[in-house]
Every structure is written in C-alpha cells, then in structure tokens.
Amino acid sequence: MSTQTRDAAIVGIHEYPSRDVEKLVSPLQIKAACAAAALKDAGLNWSDVDAIYDASDGSAMSGLTIAEYFGIKPRVIDTTAVGGSSYEFHAAHAKRDIAAGRAKVALLTYGSTAHSNAMAIGVGGRGMGTTPADNMESFAGMTLVANYAMAARRHMHEYGTTAEQLAEISVATRMHAMRNPEAVQAMKDLEFLDIRETTISDVVNSRMIADPLRLLECCMISDGGGAVVIASPEVARNCRTKPVWIIGSGEATKYPENGGDITRSAAIMSAPQAFGEAGVRPDELDIAMIYDSFSITVLTILEDLGFCAKGEGGPWVEGGRLRFDRPADGPALNTDGGGLSSNHPGMRGIFLLIEAARQLRGESTSQVPGAALAVAHGNGGMLGSRHTAGTIILARD
Amino acid sequence: MADPQRPLPTLNEHDSHAFWQATKNKELKFQRCANCQTLVFFPRSHCTGCTDGDLTWHTASGLGTVYSYSVVRQSYHPFFRSKAPYVVAWIDLDEGPRLLSNVEVSDPAEVSVGQRVQVHWEEHDELCIPLFAPVR
C-alpha cells in the first residue's frame, strides 16, 4: 500500500551557468549566487529560509559557515556529506524535516571550482593512510576511473554486456547535451575537441582510459554549482513556480565485502524504499536522472532501480531507448546532457534534482511532453567499491 | 632525479598495523572471529559479525582468483604513471578475503576474470607489498 505524501515540494531551482569560472569566483560565491537565484525563482527571500543542507563543499564546519555567509539563522542544520549523492540525501531529509514541522523552507546549495583548480579527480592518486581501508589499498594505484572500470569488467563477464551497449549511455546523453545551450558552451569552455552528437562507433573507438572504460564514457571535470529550494505545501501554494513534489526517498550504503557482488549498487536497497513510499513503479516514470559519472554507473543503476532485471541492462538500452524523443520506450535519461556532456564539478547530485524539476515544470531543453513522474538517483563515492545511494521520486502537481 | 616510488602504507595505522608488520615476513594475514566465525578483512579491532568478538589471526596461502580488474592507462601519480599500463584487480583469496592489488604481467591482455593468481612480494625497508601473478 502506498504511503505517498505530498508534504514537501521543490519550489525553486538554479544551475550556475558557467562551467569555467577562471578562478574569478569561489565555491562559496557560487553557492550564494545559486541560492539567491533559486529563492528568486520561487518568489522567496533569504529571510524565509529556516533550514540549510550542506555537503561541506565550500568550507569546514559548513553548518556554521554557510549560515553566517548567507546571513540566515536556520532552525535545522544538516551537513550530511556522502559524496555526489549528498543532495538526494538532503532532499530526503528536507522532506522529513518539513513534514515533521521543524522547517518550512529548506535550502540546498553546491559550488565547486574543480576545473579551475585543475583537480585530477578521475585519474589522480588516492591519499595514503587516511582510513584503514586506504592504508590497505592505496599501494595498488587504483584510479577513480579504474574503480568504475572494475564494475564494468565484472558486469561484462557475468552478463555478456558489451562496449557498444555501454556506449548507448554516452550517445543518448550527448544528444541531449547538444540541445542544451549551457552544455554546448560547457564543452566549448572545457575545450572538448569534437562538439557534436556522437555515435556508438565514436564512443567505442575513443581512447581507453582504464579498460574497459573509454574517454567518451567518462564525465567531464567542470566548475559549477546549483541550488534547490524545498518548501512546505503552505509555502509552495504561494510560490511563483509549479510545485514538484517529493513523493518518495531511499538511502543506502555499500562497501567492499569479502565475496560481494560489485555488479549490484546500493540502489538495490534505496530504490525499493523510495518506490514503495511513492507508490509508483519504475515503468510509470517519464524521466530518469541518474548520476552518470561513467557509462557503467547508469547501466548498473537502471537495473538496480528496477527498469529491467539485473544483467539485462545492456540489451535494454540498445537502439537509442534512453533518448528524450522515445517516451513510449521508457524514461528519458539525463535530459540536460548529464555529467558526461554538461556539468560535473565533482558532486553532481544537485543537478539531478534540478533537471528532474525542470522536466516536471515543462522547462527542459529536451522536454518530454507531459512529463509527470521522475526519479533522481545519486551515487556518491565509487561504484566499484564504497558508495552511497540516494533515490528521490518526484511528481508534478 | 630519483625514480618515483610506490606510495607505501604506514605502520602507524591502528587497524592495519599487524597486517603490514606480518608482510615483513612475507605472510598474508587475515582475521576470523573465534566466537561467530565471521571473516574480517580489512583488519579491524572489532568483529563486524558479533559484539562478543574474539578475532584471531590466520595466514592465507597466497593463492586466489581475479574477481575483476582494470588496466590503468592514465594516472597522475608519478610512480603509477611510470608503470602504466598496469593491472589493478580485486583478488579473492582462497580463504575468503578480497584484496586489492596489482597483477603483474608483461602484457595486460594476459589477465582475465576468474584467473588463478599467486602472491609474490615486493620488498621495502619496513614491510613487503603483496603483488600477484598468474599461476603458471
């Protein structure tokens, strides 16, 4: 039986337009600019905010720093920091806090200058000795890309998944990016060599980074940020925007286990919780905003969310099924262009909420006509070893 | 300029100290709980299976199977950049622990999922690093 409640809604959104700020602004400034724009989008002001959610991306002791920097005095402070999925966790917590009467207007922000700082996120080394696990693993030189590649390799081994099937993710996402002027500008600013729609052949012939993952299966490293405002029904009724209701949420973790299965992500635990709470099935969804750090992340999570059975993701995505103009075939994937081709400053989770809300408001550059239901699924940390999963189900008014 | 060096673990990390100390004698150690039989790896001071944990140390044979792997072709770390392309792998030891290491081969195409591998040791001053190679 569905326990769906419509007690909290996304009422304001903003994505920072630039992906290359040339060190002219700080992450904190990006967060504040996005917060102001998202509040304005909703028709609210700083003084309306009584709850802040922060993944410690701009400062240490962020629950304090952010409140002072924004100039607000929140009654709820949540600094859950679980990687790129933090914003799905924040949205889940904001709904709970609002439903419990602890807050009326929740503000989620993100800001990063990963590109300007030349951060080698994907192929950088990992720190030694910061945790017991690091001290056991860092000698082996596993890059972040290689971590995901291990999941892809095992998926191929167990289920016969092919490079061409994984490439479908990149091709659909790039197609959507080419329709999004901010994504096209991002690729120009980040000096992509060939800014156009891609083919399966383009992807499987691009340079190998960590077998079996190739360049066009890896997300970009950009600057950027965003903000999301979540409000109670009473507040939402008076906002300028159409409310986008949070109707289900799930949270989970996964880490390496002796004898464990790395073809299954933590989404297998967060998704049933979220879909059960929402009282909807995966096949009813119009939009799938899934954290596309790499092609394999999306393929694995499509299965784990229940769009198809485990191991059947490869055949399932074939033939351009994930494109926005194929609504009869299932959900449109990452209609903003995703982390692969639009925006990935390190923790992409907030953009999943933002683009899902755009779709349910009818404002996407790759709009699915009449989109009514969406999932935003964040994967934080690393797919092939330790990660978190946050699933949010959204519905239009 | 000196050749770039592999980043080495510290012996001063509380949970993994005993593991790395044993590598000096080329022993691959893991823990099992005498109370509930739970296999604990990476090493810890508490049992993850019960609250009456009684962890005891055991020595693995050094034989295992490649669970999954990747060939790293790009790394910003000076040592690993000098090694590329190289193979990182999750290795399931026959006794149960899953360990991250390198499979050392002349051609990465020699490595496959399910392949049998055996440990060998890279010697350093205070410890040895467990690396693997295909069983011939």
N to C succession of SSEs of chain B:
HEEEEHEEEE
Q: How many helices of chain B?
A: 2
CATH fold-level name of chain A = Peroxisomal Thiolase, Chain A, domain 1
Overall structural domain count of chain B:
2
Overview of this protein structure:
- The complex is a heterodimer of chains A (397) and B (136).
- By secondary structure, chain A is of the alpha/beta class.
- Chain A has a single domain (9-117, 220-396), classed as Thiolase/Chalcone synthase (Peroxisomal Thiolase, Chain A, domain 1), CATH 3.40.47.
- Chain A is built from 14 helices and 12 strands.
- Chain A has helices at 27-42, 62-70, 86-99, 132-137, 144-159, 163-178, 181-189, 200-204, 233-237, 267-278, 295-305, 313-317, 338-341, 349-361; strands at residues 9-15, 51-53, 76-78, 105-112, 208-210, 213-214, 224-231, 244-254, 287-290, 332-333, 373-381, 387-396.
- In chain A, helix 6 (163-178) packs across helix 11 (295-305).
- Helix content of chain B is 10%, strand content 38%.
- Chain B is built from 2 helices and 8 strands, in the order H-E-E-E-E-H-E-E-E-E.
- In chain B, strands 6-5-4-7-8 form a 5-stranded antiparallel beta sheet, with no helix packed on it. Chain B has a 3-stranded antiparallel beta sheet with strand order 2-1-3, with helices on one face.
- In chain B, strand 7 and strand 8 form a beta hairpin.
- The longest helix of chain B has 7 residues, at 17-23.
- In chain B, 35% of the residues are buried.
- Chains A and B meet through helix 4, helix 5 and strand 5 of A and strand 4, helix 2, strand 5 and strand 6 of B.
Brief overview:
With 397 residues, chain A is α/β, with parallel strands linked by helices. In chain A, 36% of the residues lie in helices and 18% in strands.
Features:
heterodimer; A: 397 residues; alpha/beta; Peroxisomal Thiolase, Chain A, domain 1; two-stranded antiparallel ribbon; 12 strands; globular; B: 136 residues; mainly beta; OB fold (Dihydrolipoamide Acetyltransferase, E2P); 2 domains; 3-stranded antiparallel beta sheet; 2 helices; 38% strand
